[in-house]
Amino acid sequence: MLLLVIFFLSFFLFFRFATAYGDFTLMFKNHVKREEIEDKVIWITGASRGIGEVLAKQLAALGAKLIISARDEAGLERVKSELSGKFAPNEVKVLPLDLASGENKLKEAVELAESFFPGSGVDYMIHNAAFERPKTTALDVSEESLKTTFDVNVIGTISLTRLLAPFMLQRGRGHFVVMSSAAGKTPAPGQAVYSASKHALNGYFHSLRSELYQKGIRVTVVCPGPIETSTSSGAEVVGKKGVSEKRLSSEKCAQLTIIAATHNLKEVWISYQPVLAVMYLVQYMPTIGYWLMDKIGRNRVEAAAKKGNTYSLSLLFGKNKSS
Ligand SMILES: NC(=O)c1ccc[n+]([C@@H]2O[C@H](COP(=O)([O-])OP(=O)(O)OC[C@H]3O[C@@H](n4cnc5c(N)ncnc54)[C@H](OP(=O)(O)O)[C@@H]3O)[C@@H](O)[C@H]2O)c1
Question: Of all atoms in ligand 1, which is nearest to the CA of residue 127?
Fold first, then answer.
């Protein structure tokens, strides 16, 4: 009897894992806590397109007071006009911002964001903006590309946090939601600098949380695998003929991100297989995980150069699909 129970339990867990698109913690949280979002001030960077735009739509519908940022003001105005909810579109604040513009500009943006909704400062800061160049080898990266990636993904994001956190600390509450990546947990052949920037974010924000948790500061680090957007973070266009990467929709990614934040989860992984399985291997069995990535690495760089599938299991066997 006990063996039968163990068999069915293992089968159930294996089936859930094989068909999952979130890690084990996220798998068992299936609803957004609306009360954690409604009437809250939520500032989203990178809201002019992609996952940030979809996050804005879902959060507006849940009754949040939104501040949306990116460099492209026209893009932000378009997103604003398409939002609907208790405070949208009319009370949505458009705050154009270049994360690489230096501390003085970021300080001005923080002061504006804090003043937009009288009586309530920023409750959630969603660090979603990022810069990613098309895939290239670790040695082919130019200094300019290295600096741009780190200026936006790391220095700008951390500076904004340093400037905003004191306001949150005065209120005794505040929540940073950080859009990292699977590339922030595992090696990402062909995306070494992007991966380095996301590893840096993970290190900073987990440390920040452990320093400030007792003072009311929450941090949720979100690590998505491949997500379908109109432009996959500057890489190849999704749906392009011949490219058959299996990507989770931006809508599902945004929904799981909101679930994770409202349940105050500290880190979540969002992806289809085989990316989730690789993340588990690298985290819990690093010797095997890194061995696997070493087998895949060169093939993935070649697949990226041919605009092929860079998430396929076939990379392990050297059979690159290309367009
Ligand atoms: N899509 C994926 O497969 C995937 C997978 C894992 C993780 N992620 C992460 O999820 C987040 C969103 O990805 P996405 O695919 O939706 O990205 P995306 O479509 O490329 O959009 C990036 C956003 O960041 C903004 N941005 C870029 N440079 C900026 C700067 N200097 N200052 C301020 N804003 C800037 C862009 O707006 P402007 O150009 O108007 O400034 C845009 O709104 C990113 O952090 C990304 O690393 C994405």
Answer: 45
Catalytically active residues are: 194
Q: What is the pTM of this model?
A: 0.93
pLDDT tens digit sequence for 239-267: 444 456 789 999 999 999 999 999 999 99
- CA–CA dist 189, 202 (Å, integer): 19
Protein residue with least CA distance to atom 20, ligand 1 = 233
Q: Using alpha carbons only, give the angle 99, 68, 177 rounded to the nearest 5 degrees.
A: 70
127-146 pLDDT tens trace? 999 998 888 999 999 999 99
CATH numbers and ranges of domains, the chain: 24-279 (3.40.50.720)
For 243, residues 6+ apart whose C-beta sits below 8 A from its C-beta are 236, 237, 307, 308, 309, 323
Q: Which atom of ligand 1 is nearest to the CA of 227?
A: 3
Which residues touch 262 (CB under 8 Å, ≥6 apart)? 32, 33, 34, 36, 37
